[in-house]
Each structure stands twice: as C-alpha cells, then as structure tokens.
Amino acid sequence: MHETDIKQIDVKTTSPYSVFVGECMLDFIKERIKGKKNLILTDSNVFSFHEKYLNNISKDIFVLKAGEESKNYRELLRIYDFLIDRGADRYSRLVCVGGGVVGDIGGFAASTYMRGIGLVHVPTSLLAMVDSSIGGKTAINYGNLKNIIGSFYQPEAVFVDVSFLKTLPDREYISAFAEIVKYGIIRDKELFEFLGANIKAIRDRNDKVIRLLIEKSIKNKVEVVEADEKEKGLRTILNFGHTFAHAIESLTEYKVYLHGEAVAIGMIMALGLSKRLELIDDSLINQVRSLLEGMGLPYRLDMDIKAEEAYEIMLKDKKNKESALRFILTRGVGNSIISSGIAKEVIMDAINEGK
C-alpha cells in the first residue's frame, strides 16, 4: 500500500502521537517502529491467523489465551516474566497486536514495567480500532470488577490496519457498532444518521463505508480525549451505556455477552433512564432500538439478572464521585449530559425494563 493511501490522525495529548489508518500496513509499521527492541503481545486467535505477520515484526512473541478472562493479574505477571526473560529494558517497546483485551493488559504492562517502556497498538478488532486502542486507558479486571486497576498511558503510535477485519468473526464485527452508535448518540448527529442510512452496507462489510466509519469514530474519540485526557469531566461521556454494561458483564462473568453487545443493552437502559428523568421520549428509544436490531445487536437482556446485584456492582464503578453513582444520559442525539444523585428505585426500574 502507498503511504498516500494511509490516513494520519494526530492526537494532541501530553505525549502526542498519531493514529494511522490504512490497509496492508506491515511494511509501513516495520519502518515506523525500527530502531528499538520490539516485543509482541497478542492473543491465541490473532496468532492462529496472523503468525507470519507477527514474526515479520518480531520473533519475541507472548500469546495470551483469547478472551476477557485473560485480563487479570496472573496474566499480567506472566507478561512481566516474558519481558524480563527476553531482556526488555527501559528503551524497549511492547507492540500490542490484538483486540481490547490485548491492548488493555498490554498497555498496563508497558506503563508499569521498569516504570514505563515504549508502547504501540496494532488493533485487530473493529472495536479496538474505533475505541479502546486510542486515548491511553490501560487496565486489568480484578474480582468481578471490570477495569478497576489501571493507568493512563499514551502509546507512541496506533496503526489501524483494516486488513485484519477480513478474519474477524461476524459476531465480533457487529458488536463493535455499539461503540460507533454511542459516538453518534453522545456527540455526532451526522454519524448517527449515516449509520441509519447504511445498515445494509454495514452488514455487507462494504469497504468504503467501514473505512469512513472507522475514521469518523477515531476523530470523535480523539477530539474528546484531547479536551480531557485524564477523564476529569468531558471524557466521561464516552462511557454512555457502560455503567450498565460493565455490571452486565460482571454478573455474567464475561461469558455471555461480548463487550459491544453489553454496551448495546446498556445504552437502551441509559436511554430508559433518560426517559424516566423526562429528558427524552419514547421516539429516540425506539429509533436506537431499531438501529441496533437492524445491525444485529441485542437491545435487551435475554437472561435474568437481579437488579439489586447490578446496582451493587455499579456502586463500585470507577466513574462514581464521592460514592455517588454517575450516569451519562442524553437530551437527544448529539446532546449528552453527566447526571448523578438519581434515586435508586429509578435506576432499578431502568435495569428491570431492559430485561
């Protein structure tokens, strides 16, 4: 691929870097990261499809078992052992080639090993391309709490090689659109309308449409991150639907719903909560529900989850402030707000309504 076909999106954070979007980017990546000792972190799914690609970057490869269950402190310690065994020093770089799990735990390992080594993300899932690889959030899960231990640590670069999507299973591909729909609801009405007008092209994996959606999503994420790198205010809106979603994932032990699927259900619960507070009416809920359904995403729970248990998990959510639950709600497409002090029974009703 010619470099002229690669889109560069700059991220102006405390440690600035760029996101590069293109196809068949192996040679481009190798050229950009040469000059340091590179070590790869990946997962078993990516390794099975792309072993040759990975070996072209580095022969030092650590393979995690694919899945959210690997995002724990035991695997983190194994990554540290790998880095020590392969002679990684403060001037080395960890190249995370994989989805959100690989990027989250790899980013945390890089941020803490020798107090910080180089980090590069090569996201292979659509969800990681449009969301988790950008912005510097790193984390592992602990107990039944998602992303409760982590850090902010910006990478040196993010390389979005859309060629990886050719081997991405349909369910994982579709699940990522929950995050793209989220961008539309919280801040980008034009994107929201584009999604509604292009459901067939999305389901058919139209290259032009997918590339456009990836770039639009990245720009939305970058603009928010630049304005609020450490999530002290505005960046919190990116968690629309996530307070509910993380509780759903925890209660189902990460074995029932993919992250995007849980976010889709969580967004409908957040919209229900917005309606109960008289911020919106049924029309927007029905519109989003129809969009999610058209894409093949769930919009309600298909199993029984106790609202009380979900509420208790939410009380430990890292977005809370002074023990008060905080939710991202909406007054309409492109108009999101941060709300706290909502009565427990109102929250419980929103959960129960989502079943």
From TrEMBL:
Transmembrane segments: none annotated. Keywords: Amino-acid biosynthesis, Aromatic amino acid biosynthesis, Cobalt, Cytoplasm, Lyase, Metal-binding, NAD, Nucleotide-binding, Zinc. One of its GO terms (molecular function) is nucleotide binding. Zn(2+) binds at residues 179, 242, 259. Binds 1 divalent metal cation per subunit. Can use either Co(2+) or Zn(2+). It catalyses: 7-phospho-2-dehydro-3-deoxy-D-arabino-heptonate = 3-dehydroquinate + phosphate. It is found in: Cytoplasm. NAD(+) binds at residues 100-104, 124-125, 137, 146, 164-167. Pathway: Metabolic intermediate biosynthesis; chorismate biosynthesis; chorismate from D-erythrose 4-phosphate and phosphoenolpyruvate: step 2/7. It comes from the Bacteria. Gene3D superfamilies: 3.40.50.1970, Dehydroquinate synthase-like - alpha domain (1.20.1090.10). Signal peptide: none annotated. The keyword Acyltransferase does not apply. It is an enzyme of class 4 (lyase). One of its GO terms (biological process) is chorismate biosynthetic process. Belongs to the sugar phosphate cyclases superfamily. Dehydroquinate synthase family. This is 3-dehydroquinate synthase. It comes from Hippea maritima (strain ATCC 700847 / DSM 10411 / MH2).
